Amino acid sequence: MPCDVPEEPQAPTAPETTNTPEPTALRDIEVRANAFTGEEAATGSFAEPWGRWAVGAVDVGAPHLVPSVADPADWADARVGWGVILPERDGLDATALGTADDAPEPIRELVRQRGGKVLRYRPDAATTQWVLRDYAGGGDLFTAASPVGTGPKQLPSYLLIAASPVEVPWQIQYALNPVRHVGRLDLDADGLDHYVTALLGGWADSTAQYAAPLVWSVDHGGGDITTLMRDLVGATLHQTFAADSDMTGATFIDGSAAEASGAVLAAELTRCRPLVVVTTSHGKTGPLSDPAVMQRDLGMLVDSAQQVVDPAALTTAWAPDGAVWFAQACCSAGADQPSAYEGLFAATGSVGRVLSEVARLGAQTAPTPRALLGASKPLRAWIGQVEPTFNWTMEFPPNQQDLTDSLRRAVYEGICGGRPVGMALASYYDAVGSLLVNHGRALKQFNSGGTSALDLATYSKATAYDRVSTVLLGDPTVAIPLPAPGATPPP
Prior knowledge:
This protein is an alpha/beta fold.
């Protein structure tokens, strides 16, 4: 049987020739336009030298056709803006009131450096609770819905109230919280100088560590609200920090398992040098029979042994050094007169007595944030409460749904994400509008005979007040520095 023999390879066949002409160079093609002069169609040839037009700058395109959106974190952009709110003082004309010349020198310097807008709170005006006066811009600004920016009749996104709550009430800060990023500085001369110097220098020499956030949660047990604060805020935030590979030094002083004393807090602040501090505890509001002591200790953190944490003890070996501190504790930011909750609780009950006696002290900023924000190496920001918080504003009573998620996100995703602290808190205030709409709707139902609607009206109003009375002390533009990409966290 013959073997299979491969066929001889065939010579390649030459391609058939065609008469297709070479393409004409672009420059040699006559150009015809769909234009008619009235006498003839328009035609033309390209200008010489060829290509000069092509290599010129492009004058159209996406960067020019698509609107440029302002970065909401860029307070220096005039479309976003930063400004200062000062009280209107007697004896100054409109020109002077349009400047910060009557403010303490550190505030004047801050306004000069930033070119900030100066606004005035007018205590005796008919529209006191609704508007701020823009003397330089020529009119009043409706705080709820004014255009954003630094131009005439515009209200900046970032606002620093440079005054005590007696001069510019907490209620102004409450009203602005849902629509702007607002902070307050109420410090003595030395403290103000320390803070503004650090702010303008960006806390350049800070040694506080991003990798070592510190959570301190008191837990008295037995149904006390400290257990709920520990569970929903302290423990949950620590779990989030500990799962972050950039936060290898995250520390939890857990009052449900160990001593959460003031001494332990001071020692851990010194050891960790945290850039973010979270504390959950009671805030001191007594003794009710001794107003002088109550004012001295107002809002100070209460530890596991029910002793106040004196800020002077904290700073013996530790410097705030640019940290941001969230303190969930009654009156940790200050007190107001009257309380926003006046009339909600029975006057003879414990809560009602606390509210009325604290209100007797008058509107003020609490001593702990004043001490830490005014330290020689000051805190960047303190977030605290002017009023108490309640278990039923942290959990929806009918089903115990956790209502603190937006607060935790504000701390972790916002503050730890490097956003300006005022901007980071915005998500916590988002619910206020919905709560007040529910309040209005429930009142309408109640007035129509729906008696059960009064429960929702009460709950919605109280929860809205709880949120807006959580305030920022410090400048709202401050942001913590983030670790460099690829950097190894310290041990």
